[in-house]
Amino acid sequence: MPIIRVALPVPIPQLFDYTAEDALESDVGRCVRVPFGRGEKSGLIVGLPDAAEVDAARLKPVLHIQREVPPLPDDWLALVGFVARYYHAPLGEVVALALPPGLRRADGVSADDTDPLLEVAPAGRQVMADARRDSKALALLRECEEAGVSPLRRSVIRALPSGAAVGDAFRRGWLQLTVGNVPRHHATGRPELTDEQATVIDQVLNAAPGFRPWLLQGVTGSGKTEVYLRLAEAMLAAGKQVLMLVPEIALTPQLEHRVAQRFPAANVISLHSALAEGARSRGFVQALSGHADIVLGTRLSVFAPLPRLGIILVDEEHDASYKQQEGVRYSARDVAVWRARQRGLPVVLGSATPSLETWQHARAERYGLLSLSRRAVASSLPKVRGVDTRRLKLDEGLSPALQAAIGERLERGEQSLVFLNRRGYAPVLSCPACGWISRCPHCSANLVVHLADRRLRCHHCGCDGPIPHACPSCGNQDIQPFGRGTQRIEARLIELFPQARVLRVDRDAARTRAQWEALLDTIAAGEADILVGTQMMAKGHDFPKLTLVGVIGADASLHAADFRAPERLFQQLMQVGGRAGRGALPGEVVIQTEYPGHPLFQHLARHDFDAFARMALDERKVASFPPFSYQAMLRADAPVLKDAVEFLQHARRLGEASAAAGLRLFDPVPMRLTRLARRERAQLLVEADERGLLQGFLLQWMKLLYAQRTSRELRWQIDVDPLDV
Ligand code: ADP
Ligand code: ZN
Ligand code: ZN
Question: What domain of life does the UniProt record list for this protein's source (predicted)?
Fold first, then answer.
């Protein structure tokens, strides 16, 4: 009796064997339903071993092997295998993440449920020529002709004004399935390329075939999207598939629309977690069967199986949402680069403000550099002005200068955005009189304020002490944590500018995609004068009437404990500043700060990302933070903090036995947001000089940790290349 080995979504790194009478080698990569404990589970067949790891007599038979869908190919199994290994996650959990739930449950998705190509049939042409009477189906045929390209995807025809008649036209024989099934990918409505765009496209297309990572560094508005579209066009023309990753679901509809318009005959699939289950399964199967031409989606679409894949495009590659922050903590950007290497393909990472990791790769010439230094349509980059708030009395955080600037925009009928930097940065103690900052005496990190037990802690090395009552440097008694609640700004703006329409744009105001789109429409239609927004506003939108961006709370990031905070601040300010003055009107960015001379703001004023990156990397090098070291974070949580900390201390002792030179295990630290959902959390940082050293250590350490007996109440996870430390 054949034995099959199955990856199941369970939180331990183990595979499970079953018997299956009719199993063949070709079933590897197929979904399967099996008995598990007292119930059933769905998983993936990863092998047909000759012998079971347990007593063969105890193996149970499978319930069902899903054979309607083609099996997932070897390169896909290698992809999930890599993610499981690199992020030290159970393979079954990676599979569960990567496969649409409907598919994994093996509840029947048809492989040929695709989006067929239709064209106007000879009978249809005849009717159009004769056209004595009018009908909806006839109107549809005319619209198809006007759309100019034939064949068209059924989904495209459906979207035409008379699209509802597609079934009718098909039944009458006026529309027919295209024979040959070779889509002609005419791109429509494309602009003339700028010289810079043409150059970078040539660079990618004329490079030697094979794996090649590229950084596409282009200022906001330089036309990176046009570059992606042209690269996609070249791939489609060569019969290849395109994978395009975007950071936010909220950004997909606009892009989806642009891509579908540009390539009317292409089968464009969008994949993200907000899709209905059936749609996600169908999209995945179309990718797998090679019917999808372009797959567009958020981080999980990096797991789309694409047999004809030609290129991977990662838009806004610096965006933190590419990193999954729960469960399997993978970085879709990094996995995309691995995927391109595996398949021997180019991968283009695009951004106006690349992550320092990627920028460093480009500087070291491990990645090719593609630059777009000018905006595509003639408009200048915004003017950046710092407002020194040290001696000012702020009104709910708003300086007189910012209020005046908003007033001017109101008079001219333009829009303003008040941008609040209120990420959950850990607050650091500072002295407004002398500029003293609570620094760790043992390492170069900043100490974090834990108000609950009134202590200052280092999240890097774990040392801690009491919160001082006065500034240790100048004796000033008025020392306070940076960063404060700024929810009242909206209310104050309404009082200050009663004639203005004030609109708040944050996660609370835009909980659903529909709400978000409605807000965007309101702004684009000019039906709001002052916007109050958080980081959601920083990304990829064009509002022609927006000419002023005021930034509040920037200093909190300047001195945050998280060493990535300045990088995020610079990225965010450059992105949000890029929102101002995209149209014909020039833009201005006003930054309120107590540190107007800080080099970060100086580089920003000159729009000089490279100068900022050089400075930030120099600082990281001195402190040996990534990318000059490699990190992993072990996190634990339990109803009582003591249990979480004790587990981490135990884990640390276990790890120290096998820690080689060049690898450092730090003390466990309670997290600042210690209590979350009635559980208390703590973390332990591991740092290594080399990636291989870290990986080798984690492999041994995880084995030891999985072998520990812990209380049922305690949970732990490992996070490789953590973003929040
Ligand atoms: P980025 O993604 O680099 O910020 P976009 O791709 O959004 O920039 O392009 C900015 C604007 O410039 C868009 O309105 C786009 O339609 C326009 N654009 C891009 N390339 C060209 C071009 N070659 N000719 C004319 N307009 C262009
Ligand atoms: Zn320290
Ligand atoms: Zn002081």
Answer: Bacteria
